[in-house]
Design brief:
Helix content is 39%, strand content 15%. The chain has 421 residues and is an alpha/beta fold. It has an eight-stranded mixed sheet, with helices on both faces. A three-stranded antiparallel sheet has the order 12-15-14, covered by helices on one side.
């Protein structure tokens, strides 16, 4: 495989046949196949045999991007607006002073008590079931720890499609299979979720709000429909990602508590700064206990200094969620309205981005780059859903909206509504 002699998707010989050909014990071949499967190099489908993965698990979707030449406006980054992030200097100074008075030592609680108190109150106010807390280094770290706590290589995870590119890389990197679930403006499609769970998916990952790349939000009606599906599958692992908390003014409708094992994750990256690398995780006792236990054997804990700085940011009201949500909402609306006026379909109910279905993704990205706009190729966020492009509107100005919409209309062309599932 390393030499390239085996093509992606190529069927590997049965273990006993290969053992005979090599003159080794079948257990030796079985162990080799197991290692390759766990490393994400091959995948096994029962009696249908083992094949080389179409895409190596180490292939990062972050590399499926456009290099931004000088003079081209970058609307592909997915980053929050730095001007809407709070200053961190005073919060870290106060946290450092506290740590001087009360240093954190080995064996201390890995979760800052005041952070736990505030986070629990926020979660309770939003209807998330009460559960123990853990702190991870961002949403992806939390999701990875929960998946590893419950699943084994070869298990299937139902994921949103289109969805978060880093997550779509993580799942196969853990040796897990993906079952794509379609998404509309209300979140995962219940019928797709049911098909995935009926087919044996062991876990489901749902983005409650600010879905990347579409901006979808799980509303009350969609949440009821998804709960109905989950009640028929109480043994699956449910993971909810609410990374948009703090930059969205649409209420969350959590699904947690329907299944035996669940986790609800909130990151501070979008509202307070990506470099804080902090996410709060709650869930059932078994899940959180496993996460914290494994964490003790690795990183140990997320810096209590960082946790104390986040507590200070929360306590000081450093971010006004309504104000930030309104700012991002205005910028999304500027582009969506301008695109609508030009007959181009666009999606973006919440968050930092607008998703535009296109008939020819490569052509649209290339034409927009030539016109002076760097957008994100939809291939970073898709497995089987239709082509699209993602435009980050977090720093879009009123003066830029119309020229960008005109460039998109020229690159994409108006046409009938194109479902992005």
């Amino acid at each position: 495989m390393g030499s390239g002699e085996l093509e992606p998707g190529q069927l590997l010989p049965p273990m006993r046949e290969l053992a005979t050909e090599l003159g080794v014990n079948p257990n030796t071949v079985a162990a080799a196949y197991r290692v390759l499967r766990e490393r994400g190099v091959i995948e096994t489908a029962g009696r249908r045999g083992s094949r080389v993965r179409p895409r190596p698990a180490t292939t990062g979707r972050e590399y499926v991007r456009v290099d931004v030449p000088e003079g081209v406006r970058n609307v592909a980054s997915g980053n929050p607006d730095p001007a809407l992030l709070p200053s961190l200097a005073k919060a870290f100074a106060a946290a450092a002073e506290q740590s001087d008075r009360d240093p954190v030592l080995y064996g201390d609680d890995p979760v800052e008590p005041e952070l736990a108190r505030i986070a629990q109150a926020q979660l309770c106010a939003d209807g998330v079931p009460e559960g123990p807390l853990a702190v991870a280094s961002g949403s992806l770290d939390a999701i990875e720890r929960v998946l590893v706590a419950h699943l084994k290589p070869g298990d299937t995870v139902a994921v949103e499609d289109p969805g978060w590119g880093s997550l779509l890389d993580l799942v196969p990197a853990l040796g897990l299979r993906m079952a794509p679930v379609g998404v509309d403006d209300e979140g995962p499609l219940p019928d797709d979720v049911r098909r995935a769970l009926d087919s044996g998916a062991r876990a489901l990952i749902v983005t409650d709000r600010v879905q990347n790349p579409t901006g979808a939000v799980v509303g009350a009606a969609r949440a009821r429909a998804l709960r109905t599906v989950l009640r028929d599958h109480p043994e699956i692992l449910l993971i909810e990602d609410d990374h948009g908390h703090g930059i969205v003014d649409i209420p969350v409708h959590p699904l947690a508590g329907i299944t035996r094992h669940w986790a609800f994750v909130r990151s501070v990256a979008k509202a307070y700064g990506p470099d804080l690398r902090l996410a709060v995780l709650t869930g059932d006792e078994t899940t959180v206990d496993r996460v914290r236990g494994r964490q003790r054997l690795g990183a140990g804990w997320v810096s209590r200094l960082v946790q104390r700085a986040v507590v200070r940011l929360w306590a000081d009201g450093a971010v006004d969620p309504a104000e930030v949500a309104a700012a991002y909402g205005r910028r999304r609306a500027l582009l969506i309205d301008a695109l609508t006026d030009r007959g181009v379909e666009a999606h973006g109910r919440s968050g930092l981005n607008v998703w535009i279905p296109v008939p020819d993704e490569t052509g649209a990205v290339s034409r927009l780059l030539h016109a002076g706009w760097a957008v994100a190729p939809g291939a970073r966020f898709r497995t089987g859903s239709r082509p699209g492009i993602r435009i980050t509107t977090s720093t879009l100005t009123e003066e830029e909206a119309v020229p960008l919409a005109e460039a998109v209309a020229t690159a994409v062309g108006p046409g009938p509504t194109r479902s992005y599932v």
